[in-house]
């Protein structure tokens, strides 16, 4: 059973519909005692990092999610949800994230290394490039195009957490992960067969973990 964390900033409808299409049992909740019953969690997100981090902190969800991850339970962040997994963001002033993955979220500069200008936000379809094609989240997934909408991007010096990247004026961490903590900067639920395959793989990852935990 997948629990979708409802903290008022998520793309709940599209994520829910994607799980329904895959015939995957799920529930929505903002209550930690209910979310605790899930086998794996999805942290969606649309909006500003500071707002999302504040809500998670005020509701106690930040502590819950940190403990959940430390216990080795599966967690998938999507878009803003992925960014919140990292240490901090500069959006609207420096704000601490969950600190489950190493890195900082910063705004696209709008200019690449050669001085060429590009539009911000990064919005539309862009190609994935696998860094760890053998990772379970990418099993049997093609290096196809996925759908992005974001003005801020993760910067990390720890390339070990990069499972797949894209290019938009710079390297864009597109799929990230370490152990049980995973994330996608793009919206898998809006990314056709590639995104649906990644969601399906996440559920398989969750199910495998649930069996292992007994």
TrEMBL record:
Enzyme Commission number: 4.3.2.10, 3.5.1.2
Entries under Pfam families matching the protein: GATase
Entries under PROSITE patterns matching the protein: GATASE_COBBQ, GATASE_TYPE_1
UniProt GO molecular function: glutaminase activity; imidazoleglycerol-phosphate synthase activity; lyase activity
Any one GO BP annotation for this protein: L-histidine biosynthetic process
GO cellular component annotations of the record: cytoplasm
Residues covered by the Glutamine amidotransferase domain: 4-201
Catalytic residue list: 79, 187, 189
Localization annotation: Cytoplasm
Gene3D superfamilies assigned to the protein according to its UniProt record, in alphabetical order: 3.40.50.880
PANTHER family, alphabetized: IMIDAZOLE GLYCEROL PHOSPHATE SYNTHASE SUBUNIT HISH (PTHR42701:SF1)
Function: IGPS catalyzes the conversion of PRFAR and glutamine to IGP, AICAR and glutamate. The HisH subunit catalyzes the hydrolysis of glutamine to glutamate and ammonia as part of the synthesis of IGP and AICAR. The resulting ammonia molecule is channeled to the active site of HisF.
NCBIfam families given in the database record: IMP_synth_hisH (TIGR01855)
The protein's name in its UniProt record: Imidazole glycerol phosphate synthase subunit HisH
